[in-house]
Amino acid sequence: MGAARKPNIVERDRNIVAEYYIKGYSTRSIAKLIGETVGNGYTVTHNTVSKDIRALLKQWSADRINDIDQRKTIELEKLDKLERTYWEAWEKSARDHKKKSIKVSGKAKTPKEKLYREITEAEIVAYGNPSFLSGIQWCIDKRCKILGIDAPAQMDLTSKGQPIKRIASIKIFHANKEDAGSTGAGD
Q1: N or C: which end of the chain has fewer CB within 10 A?
Q2: Is 52 exposed, middle or buried (0-12, 13-18, 19+ CB in 10 A)?
Q3: Domain segments of the chain: what residues?
């Protein structure tokens, strides 16, 4: 039995294993390629490569789970910010407000000359822009999908949406050794 590999050697070997494993090489081929890549008579067995593959798969799985959780967290934070923006826009669009307009008539001949100005003010009753509510609903729907809250969609693959007719009877046939050569027509 050979000496245990140092951590830096294990990491180097696993990098080589990973490269060839994802390309579909066998454990024996990978073991040979490690020896050729490293040189100086260095060898590993295909059993060592198998152990490295199991360790890599375990690591990749854990990394992927963490990566997915991190990506979900980032996307959820983006949705939260977008929803807050939609809510702020909705609330602003739903506020009653006054609208002021100024109409100037005539043309000033000198800078000190005052012109006739007509100022009108109108009170606007706001009902809110419904597109902001649609945006809020979109954020909620997207969040539910990311979190898996939505119920799975049900699909009817058997009856094409038609009512299933009642089955009057079911005939069950049992096959055994004696019936194997029988045609069923009273042989």
Answers
A1: N
A2: buried
A3: 7-66
- Rounded to whole angstroms, how far apart are CA atoms 130 and 75? 24
CA dihedral 174, 176, 180, 184 (to 10 degrees): -40
Segment 41-74, tens digit of pLDDT: 999 999 999 999 999 999 998 888 888 888 999 9
> What CA–CA distance (Å, rounded) separates 33 from 26?
11
pTM score, two decimals? Answer: 0.47
Check if the beta carbon of residue 20 is closer than 8 Å to that of residue 35: no
Of residues 46, 73, 56, 66, the one with CA closest to residue 22: 56
**Tokens 């050979």 -> residue:** 2
Give the integer Cα–Cα distance in Å for 187 and 173. Answer: 17
Q: pLDDT tier at 186 (50, 70, 90 boundaries)?
A: very low
Helix pair angle (46-93, 7-21), 10° resolution:
80
**Average pLDDT score over residue span 8-13:** 95
d(CA 77, CA 57) in angstroms, rounded, equals 30
